[in-house]
Amino acid sequence: MLWELMINKTVLDNGISVISEDISHVRSVSIGMWVRCGSCHEDAHTNGTAHFIEHMLFKGTEKRSAFDIAWAIDSVGGVMNAFTGKELTSFYLKIPDYHFPLAIDIMSDIFNNSCFAEAEIDKEKSVILQEISMVEDSPDEYIHELFDALFWDRHPLGLAILGTKERVGAMNRASLAHFFDTRYRGDKLVLTAAGNLRHEELVEMARAAFCLLRGDVRDEEAAAPVIAPRLSVLEKDLEQVHLVIGVPAPSAMSPRRYAAMLLNAILGGSMSSWLFQEVREKRGLAYEIQSYLTSYTKEGLLGVYVGTDAEKVPEVLNIILGAFGRFKDRLLEERELGAVKEMLKGNFLLSMESTDNRMSRLARNEVYFQRHVSAEEVTACIDAVTSAEVRELAAELFVPPTLSVAAIGRVREEDIASILYQ
Question: Quick one: pLDDT at residue 218?
Fold first, then answer.
């Protein structure tokens, strides 16, 4: 694709990687600062700190109040947001191209000059505690927190991104500032931009704006997680039982990730997928059922979520286990395989229409592969997956010694165990 011929990378003296894609026919620029730090870089004492810092970088600098930051972007029609994940934290803006210097100025201001004022910290504690309560009051969300803690066990990947109420309540300016100072440094930062811009201008602005950020982080690499089958049930008087069943999957860098994408898509990743059609459309057993693939640096997770009535849990669970067996035991027909490949390629190529998605993709390619992975390479790798590779992966993943289940609702652990491990 012609657009991808205009991707450039420069590493600044303090280690920040600056990567851009010049798309001259659009009138927007999306810019993001990506930090190689998330909840899996925390421990039981610091859990929730990365997410708290994400909030605090919007709460005022030496020259801008929280309102000034919001108004500076709103007043030019831009969008600014952030998110914290397990392995990455991102701060990003989308702005008209002629206001690009403003985006750099604001991004550098919040990274260089955030105040971490005690009064703002106290207010934000209340906000985040409400956020945690909101998740706990939403069983379709909370089940994923419980499952991650169960599946990853004591590994940092099992820590909640938001942290716990106890840890959030104990945070203070000193602990936040120390975590920020030791983690948010040059060699852990990737600055990406996509849109109507020039790489040389971006580099010069970035060099001037971020020269105060220090360089290296001495980071102890966490051990790979140890996955074992686990079962946990939180008995609660709810209208539905919310359940996740999951297995280990290829990592974000594994050559088998493309086979995993196809397996997930045909299992439960779309409205035409086998589980959606069988559970919802044919039998009416659930409003929502879906599979999902989450890939990290060293490991991945293929999970199935469903919300259903308590009396229907045995039937639904048996259908899911039957689906696992179905893909272990038979080759996909060429028509099935071809249709799923076209769906994945179509979703991917349509996502490339957006400058913010292209900006995000630049960052993820750098973080996980340290190189640009072209659209042609992605589509070619999808096309290259065979039915045999999908079946081999299913046969490896969908076996009782790898299955873990978490559930919330009016269901007993022994009832699920009797189905799962029969």
Answer: 66
